[in-house]
Amino acid sequence: TTFQDGGEEVEDGAVYNVTLKKVQIQQAANKGARWLGGEGDQLPPEHTVRQYETSKIRAIKAGTLEKLVENLLTAFGDADFSYISIFLATYRAFASPRAVLELLLDRFGNLETSSHGEVANLNSLESEMVLRVEIASVLRAWLDQCSEDFREPPDYMCLLKLLDYLKNNMPNSDMESRVQNLLKQFQNQEVETVDGFCSTSSSDLVDGEELEISNPEEFSSFQDHVVAEQLTYMDVMLFRRVVPYHCLGSIWSQRDKKENKNLAPTVRATITQFNAVTKCVISTILGTRELKIQQRAKIIEKWIHIAHECRILKNFSSLRAIISALQSNSIYRLKTTWMCVSKDILLMYEELSEIFSDHDNYLTSRELLMKEATSKFANLDSSEKENQKKSQKRLQLQKNKGVMQGTVPYLGTFLTDLIMLDTALQDYVEGGLINFEKRRREFEVIAQIKLLQSSCNSYCLIPDQKFIQWFRRQQHLTEEESYKLSREAEAAADTNVLSPKSQKSMVKRISTLFLGTDVFTSPKEQAPKSSPVGGSSGESTDSASVSSCEFNHSETEDVCVTPISSPEDPLKKISGYPLSSCSPDSSMSTPSSGVSPFPKGSIFDPGLGSDSGSIPTRDLGSMLSSAPKVLPVYNRQSGGSCIIRVSMDGLHDSVYKSILITNQDRIPDVTQRALLKHNLEPDAVEDYELVQVISEDKELVFPRDANVFYGMNSHVNFDFILRKKA
């Protein structure tokens, strides 16, 4: 089989990528061989005749909404077999379920009026049957893959409209029964609180229960593997409920608007759970003032063991939450406590931290996640012999149970990728057509989420109500409280207790995982300037990651963790994604090193074009489409475009938005885009000036009509401030 690029086909309201597929369909003997009675498959090539068939694969590249919906009915005929799945997974970025359903049923499904519309050639009874089958196929796929689209209490208008269509066109069919059952299911279900596991509000507690400071003895009574299993149970329940389209960059980035406070609830629930685990770790270590150094060290050791158990269970969400808590400033600065942690456990902690190394856009964790996504059990490797023995022993116990394990990812990686795609690729192309190539790229990420959700069905975990109730009762410390308790617990921590050698053995790369700064923290309460290990300046980026604290103006949500800060170089920002940012306007995180942050094999690898290098989710026709070879990235100008970060003057510098600019953009264009991103009036362009931050004491102020792309300083971070003119 060979493929050849067939260029583009342009129709009214649509643009298609065409690929020619040449397939051998027959190999027969030539005349002389047939006279001798030979068979084609038994003869050498010179005595055979091969017959080939060339077919055309059409993959829609851009189109109006009407054309995209119409293509649902013709995609199989065009050999674009993945189109329906891609459309259903991403259409919420540019249309509502009602709009799509009305087009599908009213415009194409109404056979009485379609004879003079888009399907004018479908006049015969046979053609009508074909159309009915095609519509039924699309509806069946919609119900299979995205039934949540029809959850519209209390009226359920879309479901009722669909039911009415089925009664008229497919009476007494299986699909009619299915829609009726789905409607009853939605109507009977009570309103579910997807974050019930990790909420700490008094309304979620059983009568008579109160929030309490962690009791070290009660926490120590839970076995390490039990804690890991229960955290995994909670993570699995929440991750399986994640609605994939909630993760799309165009949807998730809008969550900060007042009218969108209930947007993407399934993603918010995973964030709340992640933060609850992080805060639980900190409160168990610092919550009891009377603890001795050795007792506090034992609790740290216990959490490292629990993190290791999460690794065995392939729960990367709670694993990262625990590691991030241990690397927070209030815990990390406990120097004398860390000195009491055994060497073997410190090595285990170091290896677990290396999983989330920010090197090459978290290449290690990405490769490990994809490696273990479809494996039955964890693939454990340890450079330390004792840890290797313990790991293999625990893993063997898991295998002896005979139950396969799923994989719970750190969702923030996918959220960040999707927002990067949303920033880098345009929603519409020339002629106002919807850019469906962008949706194909987004689907590559969505497909990975769906694959991991499917793998979670392999878990067989039983809830332990005793632990879950204990977990929910924990009173979380604010950042100010945890830092104050940390200073009390480590009164002599400011002296040089640890030698450089012991620092290195404690954590080889402490900079692998940091937490973002908190909006409300005053400078006086920030981490001390001299950190035990040279880290990065704490920068809570425009984070799409699951690790960002959700902001709802409540005290319980104001708890975040301050990262270790370094006075060495204010421009050496953290080149990863924040693990906790309480900024109300945070929406995405981007690396900030001058080098390309995207690993080889990722969807942003400039050398790969449109191939993701991970899970193949696209048919060959769409893979051969003319997608852009290089996507714009942060901190690097390439192909006449780049991504900059713009924050508002007067707000915390960690609250910024990512803006795509090209070499054609001037100050008014960029300013208007930045105002829109920050949910401000775009008409006020004349009232603002754009400033690039060169260093702590230097700024570059742009003239009114300057070209931002050519005028900016490309040798420093692409960080800008939008400031009201004096």
TrEMBL record:
UniProt-annotated stretches for the region Disordered: 523-619
Pfam hit, one: RA
Regions of compositional bias (Polar residues) in chain numbering: 538-551
Annotated Ras-associating domain residues: 640-726
UniProt entry tagged with the keyword DNA-binding: no
Name of the protein in question: RGL1 protein
Single GO MF descriptor: guanyl-nucleotide exchange factor activity
CDD domains given in the database record: RasGEF, REM
Matching InterPro entries: RA_dom, Ras-like_GEF, Ras-like_Gua-exchang_fac_N, Ras_G-nucl-exch_fac_CS, Ras_GEF_dom_sf, RASGEF_cat_dom, RASGEF_cat_dom_sf, Ubiquitin-like_domsf
Keyword DNA damage: no
Annotated ranges, domain N-terminal Ras-GEF: 56-187
Bias (Low complexity) ranges: 575-597
A biological process from GO: Ras protein signal transduction
Superkingdom field: Eukaryota
Domain Ras-GEF: 223-492
Record organism: Erpornis zantholeuca
Gene Ontology cellular component terms for the protein in this record: plasma membrane
PROSITE patterns documented for this protein: RA, RASGEF, RASGEF_CAT, RASGEF_NTER
Keywords per UniProt: Guanine-nucleotide releasing factor
Gene3D superfamilies assigned to the protein according to its UniProt record, in alphabetical order: Phosphatidylinositol 3-kinase Catalytic Subunit, Chain A, domain 1 (3.10.20.90), Ras guanine-nucleotide exchange factors catalytic domain (1.10.840.10), Son of sevenless (SoS) protein Chain: S domain 1 (1.20.870.10)
